[in-house]
Predict the structure.
Amino acid sequence: MPTTVSHRQVSAQSHDPLGILAAAIGSVLTVSAGKKQSTTRPMSSQVSQALHEVLDAQTPESRSTRMLLIRHLVEVESQQLGLENSRKPAATDALMSTAQAAELLGYSRPYVAMLIDQKKLEGATVSSGGHRRVPRAAVLAWKEKHQVAVKPNDIRTEGQKIGAYKSTEADAVRRIKALASAPKKA
């Protein structure tokens, strides 16, 4: 892709994959117009070339645009067929930073970055600058699949529940005194 459209530039259009695609095509056509091509090509040919440049590129932005476009086309077809699964993009489709995902999961940011790098979070992208983004839906799905529902707040209480503290405090003090008074080996 000769010019890239960052997610920041199209944040207002983030719920419209066609808006993202249009912005990317517009940037390609603007570059083409700036070159003052000697041959006048029909607009359809220019748009076709721009579509190929935007969608065929091997960049995270192009991949994200392709995935959004596929989702949109499936939605349109689902609506045409009257399927009930069709839905408008929701907040769960929004891309999140590693810090936002880490906060949602209750883990550290580097741990989430590792999950993205190991391709354990579906749909995650890494920009050419190394910025990772992951769909909120993927984070929620991973959390549901991998996290324990309730984390124990007090390790001692949980230990007592499983019988780890069967001896009394007096027994522990007696053993410590016995160890302290035992002859030391040289």
Q: What stands out?
A: The chain has eight helices and three strands. The helical segments are 17-34, 43-56, 60-81, 98-105, 109-117, 136-146, 155-161, 169-181.
